[in-house]
Amino acid sequence: MAVDVACAQATGGAGTPADRPSSVAADASEAGAIDITKDGFLTQVKRDTVYRNDLLAQRLVPVPRSEWKAGHVYFRFHPGLARHVWSLATADGGFRYALGPGSVQQTRQFDPRASTEERQRALQARAPEMARLLEIQGTLPTVILGADERWDAHVGPSVVSVFDLDTGRRWEWHGIAPVGVIHSGGPRWARQGSGYGPVDPVRPPVLPVTAAFCPCP
User: Fold this and answer.
1) What is the mean pLDDT of residues 50-58?
2) Is residue 102 situated within a structural domain?
3) What's the domain range around 138?
4) How high does pLDDT run on average in the chain?
5) 206 domain-assigned
6) In terms of Cα–Cα distance, which of 105, 135, 122 is closest to 6?
7) What does the alpha-carbon distance between residue 97 and residue 170 come to, in Å, rounded to a whole number?
């Protein structure tokens, strides 16, 4: 079974130019590309520019509006948060969600330009055991978003999920449509450590204290 495999970022490094696919090397030299392995890369992003994450070369690459693909993940400026965030492109040319830490996405959703075969060869060269496991299981590789806006290999369940910074809501994809994740107090969550905690959880009612009559002498 052919597997749409991951990226150098998800398998331990970008590698040397000699072992990168030719299409990846070309992307890495594009004007305005930003190396996300270096500290301070967020200070280099331009407010009016939308970027895609070249997971193989570990670079943010500017993407013109005409090339945005619905359902793919891009790094765009969010006016409400006054910074760039990762979002899903929509069919009408807009964006949905502001992905927060812990969000999980398939690597194929990052508008990859390298072919499936190139990505598979890159993964087999760097992590042959992982490549064989993915092929046997028939699952697609996923990455998880960190607090530093970098995506890393995800070794947990391969369920695609979003923690939306706009609303505090969480969504999971168990099919085509997203399903909201709720708790006893409602749909809103907050990041707590490496997981999430409920916002406004339901607390047990406080029973009124009543004076008891004591028939003491």
Assistant:
1) 90
2) yes
3) 17-198
4) 78
5) no
6) 122
7) 10
